[in-house]
């Protein structure tokens, strides 16, 4: 019978090739590592990930404030780390501009990963904008599929989530197993607050999306994001009017 890395079973969290189907020992090792990093700074966590996974460590970013902070840190720790953005074709110009601003500031080129079909082809194939009728399908086609493709060949990636963002995220480990994408997920900002993020941005003059100054605390695709009112939840402007709060990227 043919053997694949998946059949061989996990070789432990620190093996060069993370298993595709982690067993309990592997998960326990990850949990142990996560515990060890619990009091580490985000920079130390990133340093660990870069040392551990080398060029198999990457980051997907939507250019949010948290992502921008991580890019800033990576520019000092490991500027060669591959970073990419899911370019759905529906992003705001202000968001797309950040790619150029990051090149100017750090000399780092964030790669745009795009779906197979252009927006025009996609809408023509579906008789109109899918985000209007079925945003889950649209997010699946234009984000998740692309992300799954991008995850191939990687061993670990950085996530910009913070534990205080939502009850779902409250228990996120620093290092954990991303079941959805079959990768080690490293969350250097898990213990940070929004204030920590913004104070780092201000102190270091880190570029950030101009829309944050125009009433958009959380920026997604242009058709699915509206500005929020004072006192509204930060993410209230995402998929407003739909029973949808996440694009399905996080567990
Ligand atoms: Fe489509 Fe909206 Fe999802 Fe963007 S956020 S992929 S436009 S449904």
Task: Summarize the topology.
Blueprint: H1 5-8, H2 24-36, H3 42-53, E1 57-60, H4 65-77, E2 83-86, H5 93-106, E3 111-113, H6 119-126, H7 130-133, H8 135-151, E4 156-158, E5 175-178, E6 183-186, H9 194-204
Parallel strand pairs: 1-2, 1-4, 2-3, 4-6
Antiparallel strand pairs: 5-6
Helix pairs in contact: 3-4, 4-9
The protein binds iron/sulfur cluster (SF4).
Key words describing this protein structure:
251 residues, six-stranded mixed β-sheet, 9 helices, 38% helix, disordered N terminus
Provide structural commentary.
The protein has a single domain, classed as HUPs (Rossmann fold). It has nine helices and six strands. The chain has a six-stranded mixed sheet with strand order 3-2-1-4-6-5, sandwiched between helices. The two termini are 34 Å apart. The N terminus is likely disordered. Bound molecules: iron/sulfur cluster (SF4).
Short description:
The chain has 9 helices and 6 strands. The chain is an alpha/beta fold. It starts with a helix and ends in a 47-residue tail after the last helix.
Uncertain stretches: 1-15
Q: What is the general shape?
A: globular
> Number of domains in the coordinates?
1
**SSE class:** alpha/beta
| Strand line-up across the major sheet | 3-2-1-4-6-5
């Amino acid at each position: 019978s043919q053997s694949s890395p998946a059949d061989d079973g996990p070789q432990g969290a620190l093996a060069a090739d993370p298993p595709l189907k982690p067993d309990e020992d592997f998960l326990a090792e990850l949990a142990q590592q996560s515990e060890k990093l619990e009091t580490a700074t985000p920079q130390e966590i990133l340093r660990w990930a870069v040392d551990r996974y080398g060029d198999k460590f990457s980051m997907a970013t939507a250019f949010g404030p948290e992502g921008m902070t991580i890019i800033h840190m990576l520019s000092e720790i490991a500027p060669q780390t591959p970073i990419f953005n899911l370019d759905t074709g529906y992003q705001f110009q202000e968001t797309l501009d950040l790619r150029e601003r990051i090149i100017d500031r750090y000399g780092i080129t964030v790669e745009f990963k795009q779906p197979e079909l252009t927006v025009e082809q996609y809408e023509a194939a579906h008789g109109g904008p899918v985000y209007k009728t079925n945003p889950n399908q649209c997010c699946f086609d234009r984000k998740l599929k692309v992300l799954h493709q991008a995850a191939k060949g990687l061993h670990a990636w950085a996530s910009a989530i913070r534990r205080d963002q939502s009850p779902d995220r409250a228990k996120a480990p620093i290092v954990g197993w991303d079941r959805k994408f079959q990768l080690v997920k490293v969350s250097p900002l898990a213990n940070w607050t929004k204030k920590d993020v913004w104070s780092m941005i201000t102190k270091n003059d880190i570029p950030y999306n101009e829309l944050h100054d125009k009433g958009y605390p959380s920026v997604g695709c242009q058709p699915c994001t509206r500005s929020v009112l004072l006192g509204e939840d930060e993410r209230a402007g995402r998929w407003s009017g739909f029973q949808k709060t996440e694009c399905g990227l996080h567990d």
